[in-house]
Amino acid sequence: MNPILKAEGVSYRYPGTESPALKDLELQIPAGKxxxxxxxxxxxxxxxxxxxxxxxxxxxxxxxxQGEPIVxxxxxxxxxxxxxxxxxxxxxxxxILSTPYEDISYGLRNAGxxxxxxxxxxxxxxxxxxxxxxADKPMHHLSLGQKKRVALAGVLVLEPELLMLDEPTxxxxxxSEQQLVEELDRIHAGGMTxxxxxHDMNLAYAWADxxxxxxxxxxxxxxxPHEVFSxxxxxxxxxxxxQPMLLELWESLPERLRKDxxxxxxxxxxxxxxxxx
Amino acid sequence: MIKLIDTFSYQNKLRSVSPLGKCGFxxxxxxxxYLAHPAVQLAIGAAMLLWTVVYAGVPLKYYGLxxxxxxxxxxxxxxxxxxxxxxxxxxLMVKAASAASALGNLPLFTxxxxxxxxxxxxxxxxxxxxxxxxxxxxxxxxxxxxxxxSELFQVMRKLRMPPLVLELMLIMYRFLFVLTETxxxxxxxxxxxxxQSGFQGRLRDTSVLVVRLFGKTMQRYRELSCGLIARGxxxxxxxxxxxSAGMPQRYKWECVLTGALLVLIELWLRWGDGA
Lengths: 277, 275
What we know:
The complex is a heterodimer.
Chain A: E1 3-12, E2 22-30, E3 34-38, H1 45-52, E4 60-65, E5 68-69, H2 74-83, E6 84-87, H3 100-110, H4 115-128, H5 144-156, E7 162-166, H6 174-189, E8 193-198, H7 201-207, E9 210-215, E10 218-223, H8 225-231, H9 233-239, H10 245-251, H11 255-258, H12 267-275
Parallel strand pairs in A: 3-8, 3-9, 6-7, 7-8
Antiparallel strand pairs in A: 1-2, 1-4, 4-5, 9-10
Helix pairs in contact in A: 3-4, 3-5
Chain B: H1 2-11, H2 19-35, H3 38-55, H4 60-76, H5 78-82, E1 83-87, E2 106-111, E3 114-118, H6 120-146, H7 149-158, H8 163-192, H9 199-230, H10 249-272
Antiparallel strand pairs in B: 1-3, 2-3
């Protein structure tokens, strides 16, 4: 496995808090995969993301980007932040300009790209994310789902190598969630490593190639969704993370159906299987 | 009210017209209404009414409200302009050049050896003031209602407004709505849980709301700075450059004609009679 981002023994404590947010965190993000980071609120997912882009600096340990420790100097950090895109849980946190068009081009302008190129890339991302009808609307007229897509577009337009999303589906309705997941799959197919922090186990199970489970600031489990969920059932239960619905259904199927198959991860596959009976 | 203005500014029929053109037109008329005669000032008010209500399609009701509300300040300042006090024995307490006025003074009542007058000069002054207020106000309202804030920022940037001021305005504009919404939500939540009832309850709950809103603002500020850093913030917020939008020929001509006509009337009023 070739890690694009690695945490080595990272510890961090927010000023004025009792317990550490990250405690000797050892974690690897494999390059080119769809990675889900699971864990409860306060398990350290967001803190890890802020470390990855160098906003927080570990009290001990280090973060390695493509094998090299992060250099906490202005110019290097700036470069790093162009290569790692971070989408926050609350889009209000990163949308700053008054219309989607202006906001999406904000990161490009920070990167010092020429106006013609900015225009071209912004137009392209607006088209590919179907945001054109919203481009010149005021930001506060947009719905939450739309704002989330604008925030994502603003990060994607920089063409990062690693995309990290903090709870991208929180507060979204099912169809917006579906739309977002399709978007992420398309981005991943384009060669980007995509990391998503979530506590929606069904989503993590169906979407991810690789799963990391965080608990109280440490990475306690990692592996393919199948490995994590089926082989560590007791462990997951003790962490209070529920089994994905599809996996539970799978396990309640008669033995002869399951025998030579790996568990199905998508509802459509499941339907096919059942209708074939 | 702010939301309403904002919505109109994004949805009016003149939105696509060049923001610099609209601002320039309004600025010229604004200057003129500052200097001109009352008749011209009223004409400017009428012209702006035509542009805002008919061309831009803002409902007359809201336009009236927007012009009317600031006039309350005018109303509040009327008494010191119009009324004058004289002590009863005839000595002037406030010197008024009442002889210069054609209207003369009208005594209202006498109280404790002091007579309160409506001064003729004051009334003239007040009348001059209201026409000027209407003229200037309608120019500003026109810009406010037809040009979205984001385009106004670009105009200001083009006019070399200092970036720091622009950034402050930009962030204020962006968070005005976020905070209003947060306050609204907290207010609704308080009501839903039985708060905001009775005078004392209202006072108490509002104070809690203000404190919580302040806390939330600080939290928002911290989050936003993280968000900005992650997006490569380098010390200044770079805005999209000004994109010049076209101005339909018809509007162009009408702008020029309106301006020229008003200036001519003003010139005629000023020198035409005397010649």
